[in-house]
Amino acid sequence: MPVQNAEIAAMFDQTADLLDLQGENPFRIRAYRRAARVIEGLPQSVFSMLEAGRDLSELPGIGKDLAGKIAEIEKTGHFELLDSLKKKLPGDIGEMTALPGLGPRRVKLLYDKLKVRTLDDLRRTVKTGRLRGVKGFGPTIVGKIGQALEKPAAQKRFRLSVAEAEAKPLVAHLEAVARSVVVAGSFRRRRDTVGDLDILAVARDGAAVGERLARYENVAEVRARGPTRTTVVLRSGLQVDLRVVPEESYGAALLYFTGSKAHNIALRNIALEHHWKLNEYGLFSGRRRIAGATEEEIYGKLGLDYIPPELREDQGEIALAKGGRLPRLIELTDIRGDLHVHSDWTDGAESIATMAEAAKARGHGYIALTDHSRRIAMAHGLDPARVTQQMKAVDRVNEKLGSFTVLKGIEVDILKDGRLDLPDSTLSKLDLVVASVHSHFDLPRHEQTERIVRALHNPHVSILGHPTGRLIGVREAYDVDMDAIIAAARRTGCILEVNAEPDRLDLNEGHAHAAKDAGVKLAISTDAHSVGALATMRFGVDQARRGWLGAADVVNTRPLGELRKLLRRP
Ligand code: DGT
Ligand code: CA
Ligand code: CA
Ligand code: ZN
Q1: Which terminus of the chain has a smaller tally of CB atoms within 10 A, N or C?
Q2: Which residue, judged by its Cα, is nearest atom 26 of ligand 1?
Q3: Contact of 476 with 515, CB cutoff 8 Å
Q4: Which chain residues have CB less than 5 Å from ligand 3, an ion?
């Protein structure tokens, strides 16, 4: 699995801390910190840059030596220098500098004055109040450290795409001895992250299916074994719960283990109103099973339309299903084009023609080419002259593509103050402008919101790209008032993006739903930097479905002519 940019940045920061702690050369320390910031700010994963054969030493602040170290990290998952620094230091000191409220200087103070070597030592000094006597440890700092120590190691959740990559071969492995093997739970509801995999299978011999799971090559640990239920942990740390059920209960079990829990409870209450009982074995009137083989049968008996898994969150879907008023959700086949695509003119891996042909082969009718603007120097961002050149190159590609169209676009950076990174005279020539934030993630909420709202008010902006900037499991969304941004999008006629990149999924489901309710249009876009990434569209569609979107809410379900009209702002 590729090591994420943020993980590499964290490794370099920690290395800088530990070098600092040992009184190393300040230039060497600064080099690591600077490299960490550069990597963190890259618009693309280091992994994909290496795959595309890019030379990382071309990046500012990254010389041959660091480039080699980054390649080593991507290859091995480890940073040897950091590991050896940690080993040299006593106790847990190698981990302590990363705690909130602590840094190399304070950790050294604690070690020198109070002999704090381990996290347990630290916990004790906080509890007994001894820390308060030490210079530089005011009540705020001590409170912060105490809090960080209390927190139990957060339950790790897995990105949906990662869970899916694990699930596919596993399901195939189990299909050798079972029928109807399906992953239920949050995975089937297509949540952006999942806590574990809940696999359901139909078989006569449940123990045999469990046995096969336990012997799967990726299993690290078997937690529980039984005739109908087996739990294992995969090497990645992902837990798998397997239940084997008989054919006649399959629908009931699928319904139950798909959840959500809140949805299940609401269904059970409807059953109770009829004096029935609903559980994972079926829908029962007294001891008689009146439904259970399929989900449709159970929803039907309860007087409800079939509810797609993505909607099963008890957010009002049950009342709508009762009245036959469920929204018709968008499907992958509704998508006719991709409005955020990069090429090798900036940091993409392929030529414009290659990206266009690949999109055409996927059945798309159009893409918008949206390479980076000049501020992203390390991605060779386009200045006005190169935009003009690229427009001509797009004309040449379009001449050869027959019915397929490459729209001329740009992903223009939103600067710190909300102005854009290219002049209006350039933007006005393009078919489509995606405006995105790639810097200053930590502005105060008010400022961040104002900045983005100002960008939306530029009449050339068509789409706000990855509107919250989150990277799942790596970087939180920046602090921003999404209601204000949705309101601004509505006022200005700007479209909001659902970025389908599996690490982003941004807007998320809740924000997409709110945008729809406000009457704002959305675009589901891959932000592809390579041909393979065009396939991530389905993850965006999944989140859009969780946000209750229908095809009509999404602009890239329209044929090109209609799309062009929607892109023209009032
Ligand atoms: P996750 O794994 O945290 O991403 O979320 P889920 O929804 O997959 O939750 P999980 O794995 O704990 O349980 C799978 C499904 O089993 C859940 O969606 C609904 C069902 N379930 C689990 N516990 C209960 C419960 O106490 N009552 C009811 N009615 N259903 C439950
Ligand atoms: Ca689960
Ligand atoms: Ca589970
Ligand atoms: Zn992009």
Answers
A1: C
A2: 261
A3: no
A4: 196, 198, 241
Q: Is the pLDDT of residue 209 over 60?
A: yes
Q: What is the dihedral of CA 498, 500, 502, 507, to 10 degrees?
A: 0
Q: What is the DSSP letter of 133?
A: G
Q: Which residues surround ligand 4, an ion (CB under 5 A)?
A: 411, 527
Span 118-168, pLDDT tens digits: 988 998 898 888 888 787 788 888 888 888 787 655 567 899 998 998 899
Closest-CA residue to 256 (of 192, 200, 311, 202): 200
Ligand 1: which atom is nearest the Cα of residue 187? 8
pLDDT classification of 472: cutoffs 50, 70, 90: confident
Q: Given phi > 0 = left and psi -120 to 50 = alpha, else beta, which region is 77?
A: left
Residue in the block written with tokens 């909001």? 496
Residues with a CB atom less than 6 Å from ligand 1: 185-186, 191, 194-196, 198, 256-257, 259-261, 264-265
Q: Where are the domains of the chain?
A: 5-152, 158-245, 260-322, 332-567
Residues with C-beta atoms within 5 A of ion ligand 2: 185-186, 196, 198
Architecture of domain 260-322: 2-Layer Sandwich (3.30)
pLDDT band (50, 70, 90) for residue 280: very high
Torsion angles phi and psi, residue 231, rounded to 5: -125, 130
Residue of minimum CA distance from atom 8 in ligand 1: 185
**Per CATH, domain 158-245 is 3.30.420.10:** no
What distance in angstroms lies between residue 333's CA and the mean position of ligand 2's atoms? Answer: 27
Class of residue 561 by CB neighbours under 10 A (exposed 0-12, middle 13-18, buried 19+): exposed
The CATH number of 332-567 is 3.20.20.140
Class of domain 5-152: mainly alpha
Tens-place pLDDT, residues 375-409: 876 668 999 999 999 999 999 999 999 899 999 99
b/e map 370-382, b = 16+ CB within 10 Å:
bbbbbbbebbebb
